[in-house]
Amino acid sequence: MAETKIIPIFPLDLVLFPRQELPLRIFEPRYKQLVDDCMLGDKQFGVCLIDESSLVNGWNSPKKIGTIAKITKCDDIGIDGMQLHIETIGRNPFEIKKIIPPSLSLPENYDPLTVEGHQEVSELHEKIGTDEKMYIRAEVELLPEIDENFPLEQWERLVDLWKKKIIRQAYPQIVEPHSLEHVLEQYYLKTDTPTIDYVYSLSALGAKDPNELQPLLEARTMTDLITRIEKLLQ
Question: Is the pLDDT of residue 3 over 80?
Answer without folding.
Answer: no
